[in-house]
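#struct-pred
JK: can someone run the complex with molybdenum atom? inputs below
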Amino acid sequence: MQLFLAGLALSLALACNNTQQKQATATPTTEQEATSEHQHPADTMKTDCGVPFDGGGKESYISHEVKVVGEVENPMTLTVDKLKKMNVHEIKNKQIICSSGENRGDIHTAKGVLLKEILFDADIKQKDHKDRNFFIVARATDGFTAGFSWAELFNSPNGEQAYVIFEENGKPLTEKGEMIVMSFNDTKTGPRHVMWLKTIEVHRIP
Ligand SMILES: Nc1nc2c(c(=O)[nH]1)N[C@H]1C(S)=C(S)[C@@H](COP(=O)(O)O)O[C@H]1N2
Ligand SMILES: [Mo]
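RT: done, C-alpha coordinates with the ligand placed:
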Protein backbone atom coordinates (compact mmCIF):
# COMPACT_ATOMS: atom_id res chain seq x y z
CA MET A 1 0.00 0.00 0.00
CA GLN A 2 2.83 2.36 0.87
CA LEU A 3 4.29 1.72 -2.57
CA PHE A 4 0.95 2.53 -4.18
CA LEU A 5 0.59 5.77 -2.24
CA ALA A 6 4.15 6.71 -3.09
CA GLY A 7 3.38 5.99 -6.75
CA LEU A 8 0.22 8.08 -6.67
CA ALA A 9 2.06 10.93 -5.01
CA LEU A 10 4.73 10.72 -7.70
CA SER A 11 2.11 10.76 -10.45
CA LEU A 12 0.49 13.79 -8.91
CA ALA A 13 3.81 15.51 -8.50
CA LEU A 14 4.72 14.85 -12.10
CA ALA A 15 1.32 15.67 -13.57
CA CYS A 16 1.34 19.22 -14.79
CA ASN A 17 -1.30 21.70 -13.79
CA ASN A 18 -1.94 24.96 -15.57
CA THR A 19 -4.14 26.27 -12.80
CA GLN A 20 -1.17 26.15 -10.49
CA GLN A 21 0.98 27.95 -13.03
CA LYS A 22 -1.66 30.64 -13.40
CA GLN A 23 -1.78 31.10 -9.64
CA ALA A 24 1.97 31.38 -9.46
CA THR A 25 2.15 34.08 -12.13
CA ALA A 26 -0.96 36.06 -11.18
CA THR A 27 -0.53 39.19 -9.10
CA PRO A 28 -1.17 38.04 -5.55
CA THR A 29 -4.40 39.30 -4.07
CA THR A 30 -5.04 39.79 -0.40
CA GLU A 31 -7.20 36.69 -0.45
CA GLN A 32 -4.44 34.58 -2.04
CA GLU A 33 -1.90 35.95 0.43
CA ALA A 34 -4.23 35.10 3.26
CA THR A 35 -4.62 31.47 2.10
CA SER A 36 -1.07 30.90 0.87
CA GLU A 37 0.17 29.62 4.23
CA HIS A 38 -2.34 26.77 3.92
CA GLN A 39 -1.05 25.64 0.53
CA HIS A 40 0.53 22.25 0.19
CA PRO A 41 4.22 22.55 -0.85
CA ALA A 42 3.36 20.79 -4.14
CA ASP A 43 0.94 23.63 -4.99
CA THR A 44 3.75 26.14 -5.21
CA MET A 45 6.07 23.83 -7.20
CA LYS A 46 6.89 24.90 -10.72
CA THR A 47 4.93 22.54 -12.94
CA ASP A 48 5.29 22.00 -16.67
CA CYS A 49 3.75 19.76 -19.26
CA GLY A 50 6.41 17.45 -20.59
CA VAL A 51 9.00 15.26 -19.01
CA PRO A 52 11.86 15.93 -16.65
CA PHE A 53 15.02 15.19 -18.60
CA ASP A 54 18.15 15.03 -16.55
CA GLY A 55 20.34 16.20 -19.41
CA GLY A 56 21.18 12.59 -20.26
CA GLY A 57 18.88 12.53 -23.28
CA LYS A 58 15.80 10.48 -23.94
CA GLU A 59 17.86 7.43 -24.96
CA SER A 60 18.75 6.76 -21.33
CA TYR A 61 15.05 6.21 -20.52
CA ILE A 62 14.24 3.74 -23.27
CA SER A 63 13.41 0.26 -22.04
CA HIS A 64 13.27 -2.76 -24.35
CA GLU A 65 11.26 -5.01 -22.12
CA VAL A 66 8.47 -4.76 -19.58
CA LYS A 67 8.32 -7.10 -16.62
CA VAL A 68 4.95 -8.16 -15.25
CA VAL A 69 5.56 -8.88 -11.58
CA GLY A 70 3.98 -9.15 -8.15
CA GLU A 71 0.90 -11.15 -7.25
CA VAL A 72 0.86 -13.22 -10.44
CA GLU A 73 1.23 -16.94 -11.11
CA ASN A 74 3.20 -16.35 -14.32
CA PRO A 75 5.62 -13.43 -14.09
CA MET A 76 6.37 -12.40 -17.67
CA THR A 77 8.80 -10.29 -19.62
CA LEU A 78 7.06 -8.50 -22.48
CA THR A 79 8.80 -7.33 -25.61
CA VAL A 80 7.32 -5.75 -28.73
CA ASP A 81 7.71 -9.09 -30.53
CA LYS A 82 5.78 -10.90 -27.81
CA LEU A 83 3.00 -8.30 -27.84
CA LYS A 84 2.65 -8.68 -31.61
CA LYS A 85 1.85 -12.37 -31.06
CA MET A 86 -0.94 -11.54 -28.63
CA ASN A 87 -4.42 -10.18 -29.37
CA VAL A 88 -3.47 -6.88 -31.04
CA HIS A 89 -6.04 -4.10 -31.15
CA GLU A 90 -5.96 -1.14 -33.48
CA ILE A 91 -6.88 2.17 -31.87
CA LYS A 92 -7.88 5.23 -33.87
CA ASN A 93 -8.08 9.00 -33.39
CA LYS A 94 -7.03 9.64 -29.80
CA GLN A 95 -5.29 12.55 -28.15
CA ILE A 96 -2.86 12.88 -25.28
CA ILE A 97 -4.32 15.62 -23.09
CA CYS A 98 -2.29 16.90 -20.17
CA SER A 99 -4.10 17.53 -16.88
CA SER A 100 -3.82 21.23 -17.78
CA GLY A 101 -6.01 20.58 -20.84
CA GLU A 102 -3.13 21.07 -23.26
CA ASN A 103 -3.05 18.70 -26.24
CA ARG A 104 0.35 16.99 -26.15
CA GLY A 105 -0.13 14.91 -29.27
CA ASP A 106 -2.57 13.32 -31.71
CA ILE A 107 -2.65 9.60 -32.25
CA HIS A 108 -4.17 8.78 -35.62
CA THR A 109 -3.65 5.05 -35.28
CA ALA A 110 -1.96 2.90 -32.68
CA LYS A 111 -1.48 -0.79 -32.01
CA GLY A 112 -1.51 -2.36 -28.62
CA VAL A 113 -2.64 -5.15 -26.32
CA LEU A 114 -5.22 -4.63 -23.58
CA LEU A 115 -3.68 -4.40 -20.13
CA LYS A 116 -6.37 -6.74 -18.83
CA GLU A 117 -5.43 -9.39 -21.40
CA ILE A 118 -1.78 -9.17 -20.35
CA LEU A 119 -2.87 -9.53 -16.72
CA PHE A 120 -5.12 -12.43 -17.65
CA ASP A 121 -2.07 -14.22 -19.12
CA ALA A 122 0.03 -13.32 -16.07
CA ASP A 123 -2.78 -14.82 -13.98
CA ILE A 124 -3.38 -12.70 -10.89
CA LYS A 125 -3.21 -14.81 -7.72
CA GLN A 126 -6.86 -14.70 -6.73
CA LYS A 127 -7.81 -17.08 -3.93
CA ASP A 128 -11.49 -17.05 -4.85
CA HIS A 129 -13.92 -14.89 -6.74
CA LYS A 130 -14.23 -12.43 -3.88
CA ASP A 131 -10.46 -11.93 -3.79
CA ARG A 132 -10.33 -9.09 -6.28
CA ASN A 133 -8.88 -6.17 -4.40
CA PHE A 134 -5.65 -5.57 -6.25
CA PHE A 135 -4.03 -2.51 -7.65
CA ILE A 136 -1.86 -2.43 -10.71
CA VAL A 137 1.06 -0.04 -11.11
CA ALA A 138 2.55 0.86 -14.49
CA ARG A 139 6.06 2.15 -13.75
CA ALA A 140 8.53 3.85 -16.11
CA THR A 141 12.32 4.02 -16.11
CA ASP A 142 12.20 7.69 -15.02
CA GLY A 143 10.08 6.82 -11.97
CA PHE A 144 6.79 8.02 -13.47
CA THR A 145 3.87 5.82 -12.42
CA ALA A 146 0.18 5.32 -13.06
CA GLY A 147 -2.15 3.20 -10.94
CA PHE A 148 -5.19 1.13 -11.91
CA SER A 149 -7.53 -0.84 -9.73
CA TRP A 150 -8.50 -4.44 -10.49
CA ALA A 151 -12.15 -3.39 -10.65
CA GLU A 152 -11.63 -0.67 -13.20
CA LEU A 153 -9.63 -2.93 -15.49
CA PHE A 154 -11.81 -6.02 -15.20
CA ASN A 155 -15.20 -4.56 -14.36
CA SER A 156 -15.53 -1.10 -15.86
CA PRO A 157 -15.34 0.61 -19.26
CA ASN A 158 -11.83 1.87 -18.41
CA GLY A 159 -10.55 -1.67 -18.83
CA GLU A 160 -11.77 -1.79 -22.42
CA GLN A 161 -9.44 1.06 -23.32
CA ALA A 162 -6.33 0.58 -21.19
CA TYR A 163 -3.53 -0.70 -23.39
CA VAL A 164 0.15 -1.38 -23.69
CA ILE A 165 0.86 0.35 -27.01
CA PHE A 166 3.84 -0.58 -29.20
CA GLU A 167 3.13 1.23 -32.47
CA GLU A 168 1.89 4.71 -33.26
CA ASN A 169 0.86 6.11 -36.63
CA GLY A 170 2.27 3.06 -38.39
CA LYS A 171 5.71 3.29 -36.78
CA PRO A 172 7.33 1.47 -33.89
CA LEU A 173 7.78 3.67 -30.84
CA THR A 174 11.27 5.02 -30.48
CA GLU A 175 12.22 7.91 -28.20
CA LYS A 176 9.01 7.58 -26.12
CA GLY A 177 10.10 4.07 -25.22
CA GLU A 178 9.20 0.86 -27.02
CA MET A 179 6.05 0.30 -24.98
CA ILE A 180 3.66 2.82 -23.45
CA VAL A 181 0.64 2.34 -21.19
CA MET A 182 -2.30 4.42 -22.37
CA SER A 183 -5.72 4.73 -20.76
CA PHE A 184 -8.00 6.17 -23.42
CA ASN A 185 -11.20 6.24 -21.39
CA ASP A 186 -9.71 8.82 -19.03
CA THR A 187 -11.00 12.40 -19.19
CA LYS A 188 -7.39 13.63 -19.39
CA THR A 189 -5.26 11.00 -21.08
CA GLY A 190 -1.85 12.51 -20.18
CA PRO A 191 -1.62 11.41 -16.53
CA ARG A 192 -1.98 7.67 -17.31
CA HIS A 193 0.14 7.80 -20.45
CA VAL A 194 3.26 6.02 -19.22
CA MET A 195 6.21 6.35 -21.57
CA TRP A 196 9.36 4.24 -21.12
CA LEU A 197 7.28 1.56 -19.42
CA LYS A 198 9.46 -0.77 -17.35
CA THR A 199 7.20 -2.79 -15.05
CA ILE A 200 3.57 -3.70 -14.54
CA GLU A 201 3.17 -4.59 -10.89
CA VAL A 202 0.24 -6.34 -9.29
CA HIS A 203 -0.21 -5.55 -5.60
CA ARG A 204 -2.78 -6.90 -3.22
CA ILE A 205 -4.61 -4.17 -1.29
CA PRO A 206 -3.56 -4.81 2.29
N1 LIG B 1 7.56 8.07 -18.18
C1 LIG B 1 6.87 9.22 -18.21
N2 LIG B 1 5.68 9.25 -18.82
C2 LIG B 1 4.97 10.40 -18.84
C3 LIG B 1 5.45 11.58 -18.23
C4 LIG B 1 6.72 11.51 -17.59
O1 LIG B 1 7.22 12.47 -17.02
N3 LIG B 1 7.40 10.31 -17.62
N4 LIG B 1 4.70 12.72 -18.29
C5 LIG B 1 3.24 12.58 -18.50
C6 LIG B 1 2.54 13.79 -18.81
S1 LIG B 1 2.42 14.93 -17.55
C7 LIG B 1 1.89 13.98 -20.01
S2 LIG B 1 0.88 15.30 -20.28
C8 LIG B 1 2.06 13.03 -21.13
C9 LIG B 1 2.53 13.69 -22.38
O2 LIG B 1 3.83 14.16 -22.14
P1 LIG B 1 4.77 14.69 -23.33
O3 LIG B 1 4.05 15.88 -23.85
O4 LIG B 1 6.06 15.04 -22.69
O5 LIG B 1 4.86 13.61 -24.33
O6 LIG B 1 2.95 12.00 -20.81
C10 LIG B 1 2.89 11.51 -19.51
N5 LIG B 1 3.77 10.39 -19.43
MO1 LIG C 1 0.80 16.27 -18.18
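RT: quick notes.
Strands lie at 66-70, 76-78, 89-97, 103-114, 134-140, 145-149, 162-168, 171-172, 180-183, 197-204.
The chain is about 20% helix and 30% strand.
JK: thanks, will look after standup
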